[in-house]
Amino acid sequence: MKAMLINTYGEDAVFEAADVNKPELKTGHVLVKIAASSVNTIDTMIRKMGKDLPFSPDTPAILGMDFAGTVEAVGGGVKDFSIGDKIYGCAGGLAELPGTLAEYIVADCNLIAHKPKTLSMREAAALPLVAITAYEGLTRAGIKQGQKVLVHGGSGGVGHVALQLAIHFGAEVFSTGGGEKQMALIEQLGATAINYKAETIEQYVAEHTNGAGFDLVFDSVGGANLPNSFEAAALNGQVATTVSLCELDLTMAHFKGLSLHVVFMLIPMLHNFKREKHAEILGNLTQIVESGGLKPVLDEKRYSFAEVGQAHARLESGQAMGKVVVEIST
Residue-wise over 276-293: b if at least 16 C-beta within 10 A, else e? Predict the structure, then answer.
């Protein structure tokens, strides 16, 4: 099969086209012909940092985690999938799991689900990693109908999904953005946009919560922004973050009695730990999408299989609005 390989990691790492062996089918897995794969920040980090990240695969490596495609063969013990099924998932591209920048993948059935019928392959490929992350963060934080929820980074990959899911779960949703395009997208998706460059936290907390703070803060920016989430949260509030690789002063969180939920959605893939939870979440997401509660936003630029490097550069440029997707086959 055709694949795009990384032979050497680093800032100048490039993808090289190669012919490699088609993966062999295994029990509990399906062979999938991949139609599309999306680019996530973690993919670009692996390409540049290589073995500085403990979960980067050995080179030559097939990167790429998200995919949508068609089942071509079914392994022993598989009951929920048949040849010809359209599926999606996040099933490779790290540790010993070959990735999705290839014509085929053998995917663990605990990491996939039937693709939403209302989405194209490109749209479906955009969802798994970011949508599982958003779903896990919101549900672990106990999102409830009627809550006031703040999403930091609501125009980003994870953020634009978290925003829509929070609305689906019945919350009143607000979201920060830093430019006209970002603010417009947030409003278009159904949330109240907050320009964090023009308003202080104290100002928008006063304006939107009468000074009480938000019941739940979903922070897809994280890092240095986490103290802002603590400041914006209500007493005994919930904070979920997807980026916590940092040292923090938790004094404010202590005195406000906050609960902090750290989401690292790669754990089931890396450790083969409760992988079936990802299949369950993806199944729930399919239902939410088909009910009209979630629609991925795709960047305006399209990329072919041979243009994977350009797709990575697009995501890293910060210019993309929505998910960057690579079309593997038609």
Answer: ebbbebbebbbebbeeee
- Angstrom distance (rounded) from CA 271 to CA 166: 29
Q: Give the three-class secondary structure for 233.
A: strand
Does the model's pTM come out above 0.70?
yes
Which 3 state secondary structure label does DSSP give 163?
Answer: helix
**Percent of the chain beyond pLDDT 90?**
97
256, with CB counted inside 10 A (0-12, 13-18, 19+), is middle
DSSP E strands: which ranges in 103-258? Answer: 104-108, 112-114, 148-152, 172-177, 192-195, 214-219, 233-241
Cα angle 32-33-36, degrees, rounded to a multiple of 5: 110
Nearest one of 118, 145, 91 to 294, comparing CA atoms: 118
State the chain's mean pLDDT as an integer: 97
- Is there a contact between 29 and 132 (Cβ–Cβ < 8 Å)? no
Spans of the chain, pLDDT less than 50 = none
Cβ atoms within 10 Å of 145's Cβ, excluding its own: 8
Angle made by CA atoms 91, 223, 163, in degrees to the nearest 5: 60
Is the distance from CB of 268 to CB of 250 less than 8 angstroms? no
| Residue ranges of domains in the chain, CATH in brackets | 2-127+295-327 (3.90.180.10), 130-262 (3.40.50.720)
